[in-house]
Amino acid sequence: MEKLSPFMDIASLEIESLRRIKRPKRFSEESETETMTSSNAVFGFPHLPEEPNRDLDQSVLCRIRVRLPDGRRIQRSFLKSESVQLLWSFCYSQIDESERKRFKLIQAFPGEYKNLYFGSNTTFEESGLANSLVSVTWV
């Protein structure tokens, strides 16, 4: 065990130094407003309309924050009356083309989580997703 001690100390220092490295931000406000490409149709996601104006009455808007698999966090406003399926379109549009593959959305609660299903035809208000955090994970 004494012979392994120096290696264990070095490994813990390397792990600590890796934790301090920050990922570069690859997301900007400009990329959020880009329109959807035709490749979105490959997965059957609906067309993503423009983001609603933030000056609208807050009772009709909801903000959804999304954590992507690469660690980025993005945010977008939706109308509460819009279909939850638009969330898949938004997430797909934010994933780099080289990384695009099947994914699922999970809404985490303290102590539990809820899988979201694309086939659901509910609105943001009906689903309880208004003003919440959703995580994108690979299937």
TrEMBL record:
CDD domains, alphabetized: UBX (cd01767)
Coiled-coil stretches noted in the UniProt entry, renumbered to this chain: none
A GO BP annotation: proteasome-mediated ubiquitin-dependent protein catabolic process
Gene3D superfamilies: Phosphatidylinositol 3-kinase Catalytic Subunit, Chain A, domain 1 (3.10.20.90)
Pfam entry (one): UBX
Region entry Disordered, spans: 26-50
A Gene Ontology term for the protein's cellular component: nucleus
Record flagged with keyword Signal: no
Molecular-function GO term, any one: ubiquitin binding
Domain UBX: residue ranges: 57-137
Keyword Lyase: no
Keywords from the UniProt entry: Ubl conjugation pathway
Name of the protein described by the UniProt record: UBX domain-containing protein
Organism, scientific name: Arabidopsis lyrata subsp. lyrata (Lyre-leaved rock-cress)
